[in-house]
Amino acid sequence: MGRGISRRGVLGGLMGLGGAVPAFRLAAAAPAQTRAGTPPGATGIPADPQRVIAIDSRISLECALALDLPLIGYSHSRARPWVPVPASVPFLAAPPDLEQILALKPDLILCPDTAPASDWWPLTRLAAIAPVLPSNHRLTWQENLASLGQWLGREALAEKTIAAHAAVIASIRARHGAAIAKNLVAAIWFDPIKRRTMVSTAGTGYGQVMPAQVLAELGGHGIDAARLGPYGEVALEALGDVLGPADAMLLQDFGNGALEALTREALWQRLPAVRAGRVEIVKGNCTFGACYTAAYLATAYDALYARATA
């Protein structure tokens, strides 16, 4: 820190500025380079970052791992079991604690641009601590990874990850092409408190949810968002009308008792796909993510289409 400047004093000043970004950087950075095409405010990106923080445990963390960035922490929620985050990388406060992040002295931060002035994704305020590279929940995980790879000079790693996933998708399409073309699929999870089903499909307010992305990669057919609430909601009394036409369903089990609650619902038990045994249960919350979640979902869809042809 500069002479006479304390962490707490700087952070207090940031809050007083309403999130405005000072002209200086607070963290010591590695030798920097400016890359053409980087987002506004993301200049001074280290040529070889050594202390990277991923604010979002889904897309930010997964992209950081795919690009082999040296992580010193991540936020939002605990990493999913299928994401290979080293045990040495700590889970930080959530929502992000700016003082904690400042104390870790990152030289690069990855953060979604979902709500840059919010508590959960405070991209604007983080930019005063270290250079920040964004991801966009309206883009596919491939687009976000490719952009980060380009900005960081790690295009080869991004391309390798994207190509490996494309090969997996191609193999599933080769095995289940007829079933993929024929079957309407609903990717869902259940909210036991509100007693409503949430459909992860393209076109809702959540943007590019992962089940919809992978289904689209496979060439599959999902539930039309026009039949759902703004964020994919289906009221329990509408379950038959909306999910009745589905030939098969991918059901996320968050491990919070929601699966058991759903199976007790009579309207759920009456659905044709349920009665035919065409429901594949996928453990964990895989609504959002990037390459590792895409791979996890690809395996689940492979199993679902196998059920559909059994």
From TrEMBL:
Keywords for this protein: Ion transport, Iron, Iron transport, Signal, Transport
Location in the cell: Cell envelope
Any Pfam family the entry gives: Peripla_BP_2
GO cellular component: outer membrane-bounded periplasmic space
PANTHER family, A to Z: IRON III DICITRATE-BINDING PERIPLASMIC PROTEIN (PTHR30532), IRON(3+)-HYDROXAMATE-BINDING PROTEIN FHUD (PTHR30532:SF1)
Organism of derivation: Azorhizobium oxalatiphilum
Protein family: Belongs to the bacterial solute-binding protein 8 family.
Domain named Fe/B12 periplasmic-binding: residues: 52-310
Main location per the UniProt record: other
Protein name: Fe/B12 periplasmic-binding domain-containing protein
GO biological process: iron coordination entity transport
PROSITE patterns per record: FE_B12_PBP, TAT
Protein origin, superkingdom: Bacteria
